[in-house]
Design a protein that fits this description.
- The chain is about 30% helix and about 30% strand.
- It is of the alpha+beta class and about 220 residues long.
- It has one domain.
- The strands form two sheets. Strands 1-2-8-7 form a four-stranded mixed beta sheet.
- The protein starts with a helix and ends with a strand.
């Protein structure tokens, strides 16, 4: 039961860190605004008339065709990785946001603590939303500000993924909880960092996470 709750909480917090635009820094630091090309409406106009340069399109990461691939389409596929992955070899695990959404909602079906959730993979970022009970976060000592009221919570946000010292790093770009966002990014960031620190499997060494439209690819070694 405890293991199931940890899985649900980790999935919930990951989804909570996912949606929208690069203005989280501005909300956290008054006076700090995103670069002009990222401003809605005026940014594209300034680019069109040549006052500011157009934002560079990130180059797509190239996948190594020699790596063995394992595709996850169900909870059974996810559980089977523990026995199916070759030990000590570099592998790639691939999943679509559609399949992971189905896995997540199958896991929480009939559970009171988490009602629903969804994620959306885009190039180099992930967005999502979730509906859950306040008590699930409080059970794991996640501090929720007093100005967030009610037992039922709805969260949405965006995040970027990277890898450091064999572990995933989830960097929150924006987070809203029940329509509010003041200071929540730092709270969620701390909670996610703590969960990854306490629950990451030491036998797994991630090398990189590649996010593209609708799909995630994770490369690494299982020792």
């Amino acid at each position: 039961m405890l293991k199931t709750k940890r899985i649900l909480l980790t999935l919930a917090l990951v989804i909570m860190t996912q949606t929208a635009m690069p203005v989280y820094a501005a909300s956290e630091s008054p006076g700090l605004l995103p670069p002009l090309p990222q401003w809605p409406i005026i940014g594209p106009i300034l680019q069109w008339i040549g006052i500011v340069p157009e934002a560079e399109t990130p180059e797509a990461e190239v996948l190594d065709p020699t790596l063995p691939e394992f595709r996850v389409t169900s909870w059974e596929d996810l559980k089977a990785l523990e026995t199916d992955l070759p030990r000590g070899e570099r592998v790639r695990i691939i999943a679509t946001d559609k399949d992971l959404n189905a896995v997540f909602n199958d896991l929480v079906d009939g559970k009171d603590a988490v009602q629903s959730g969804s994620i959306d993979f885009d190039t180099n970022s992930v967005s999502g939303e979730i509906a859950l009970k306040r008590e699930l976060l409080e059970d794991y000592d996640v501090e929720i500000p007093d100005f967030i009221s009610g037992d039922s919570l709805k969260a949405s946000g965006t995040a970027e993924f990277s890898v450091e010292s064999c572990r995933p790093v989830i960097n929150i770009k924006k987070l809203r909880l029940n329509g509010r966002n003041m200071g929540l990014g730092k709270i969620a960031q701390g909670a996610i960092n703590k969960i990854l620190e306490e629950n990451w499997i030491s036998d797994v060494c991630l090398e990189r996470v590649i996010l593209t439209d609708g799909e995630i690819a994770v490369e690494g070694i299982w020792y």
